[in-house]
Design brief:
The chain is of the alpha+beta class. The chain contains 9 helices and 4 strands. The chain is elongated, with a radius of gyration of 36 Å.
Length: 402
């Protein structure tokens, strides 16, 4: 009963007004980018990183100290009214800005990584759905051919030109073709539901006509550290570690500030003056040295991680190119085989009508066509997935909604 309901749902989808216009891969990518909360979260993290950078690179805060002492003898009278402005002459702000810049680069790389993973998921599921539709279409065509054959054999049996056992033989093939067609329709419905989940769209609004025609330029050598999001993340970690090392090295630098002061509230005549204050750290018991050393080791570790990941990425790119070229060749060869198999079925049909071949030979040709067409669809699916993998390992992001 559930199977019947699923098939009816699929028929309703195909006949719905939304499904009359198949969705393209570009539109699917645009829908995923617009609808998925993971993309919005990554974009918000970029805004947060920019605000954090502004805060880190801001000028030291101006402070106003106001106090009152009831008896001047207890001290503190010279601090009754003090305006203090720290001065950054040793590069603290620049070091903090570098740290903020690294955070922005990390957030931007995270967004690119989210988009790359989403693109890979959409591309793969879109291709799975296109393959499911191709399988369903092929199964429907085989079912239609078998149905016509069943009708022709039934007519010949009724006319006494063929024995009834041949009608039974075709009836079995027809039932088998119907079962396969029903199964393929159900698989198409399930694939559309998965695609709808990835795009965050109702399944009633989805239909895929064919595999996406995505052009891949294998001759273009990519700068992987600039294009791959995971390598950009590691590069941002290197910059962040370098910024932290610089900040740590400034831990024992003097602190300079300018102060505007007023005489005590108890003074009969108010006077104002300026004071330059320099605070010099004398002994921190090795804290700055240890923090700087730790930060520099972190820089070395981040660089080695980036170097190793870049080497592996280059290997992945070469392997992906090999798989893609092989998949392209398989599709080209299958195209010729499918044409031959279809021509064979047509010749077999004519030959059977003219009693030049037997029913078994005609059925075998039909079955061979089904197998070849399924192999062709599988080769196209493999090619589409190889393209998706190449885009992922090369760090390319397709234009959405174009």
């Amino acid at each position: 009963m559930k199977f019947v309901i699923s098939v009816l749902c699929l028929l309703a989808i195909v006949r719905s007004p939304y499904a009359q216009q198949p969705i393209s891969l570009s539109d699917a990518l645009a829908a995923a980018k617009a609808n998925r909360a993971s993309v919005s979260a990554a974009q918000l993290r970029i805004l947060s990183a920019r605000q954090s950078r502004n805060a880190l690179g801001s000028f030291p805060a101006t402070k106003l100290f106001v106090g009152y002492t009831d008896k001047e003898q207890v001290g503190g009278a010279d601090d009754d009214l003090v305006l203090v402005q720290p001065l950054d002459i040793f590069g603290n702000r620049a070091a903090l800005r570098s740290s903020g810049d690294a955070r922005i680069e990390r957030a931007e790389a995270d967004l690119q990584q989210v988009l790359a993973e989403l693109q890979n998921a959409v591309f793969n599921q879109y291709s799975e759905t296109a393959a499911a539709k191709a399988f369903a279409d092929s199964a429907s065509q085989i079912q239609e051919i078998t149905q016509r054959l069943h009708f022709a054999i039934s007519t010949l049996v009724q006319e006494g030109k063929l024995p009834g056992v041949q009608l039974s033989r075709v009836a079995i093939e027809l039932e088998r073709a119907q079962l396969i067609a029903d199964q393929r329709r159900a698989e198409l419905l399930a694939s559309l539901q998965r695609l709808g989940g990835i795009l965050d769209l109702p399944v009633e609004q989805l239909m895929v006509s064919d595999f996406a025609d995505v052009k891949i330029d294998l001759g273009e050598s990519a700068n992987l550290q600039a294009t791959r999001a995971d390598l950009r993340v590691l590069a941002a970690e290197v910059k962040a570690a370098q910024a932290e090392a610089r900040i740590a090295s400034l831990g024992n630098r003097p602190e300079l500030e300018i102060q505007g002061r007023q005489t005590s509230w108890h003074a009969s005549e108010r006077q104002y003056g300026l004071r330059i204050q320099l605070g010099i750290p004398l002994l921190d018991f090795g804290k700055t040295k240890a923090e700087t050393g730790a930060a520099r080791r972190q820089v070395e570790a981040a660089k080695k991680s980036l170097e190793d990941a870049t080497r592996l990425a280059a290997t992945e790119l070469r392997a992906s190119q090999t798989e893609l070229e092989s998949a392209q060749e398989q599709v080209r060869r299958y195209e010729a085989i499918v044409k031959g198999a279809r021509a064979l079925v047509e010749k077999s049909r004519i030959g059977f009508t003219e009693k030049a071949i037997t029913l078994v030979e005609l059925l075998e040709a039909t079955r061979a066509l089904r197998e070849v067409e399924e192999g062709f669809v599988e080769s196209r699916l493999k090619l589409a997935k190889a393209k998706a993998t190449y885009l992922k390992v090369s760090g390319q992001i397709l234009e959405a909604g174009k």
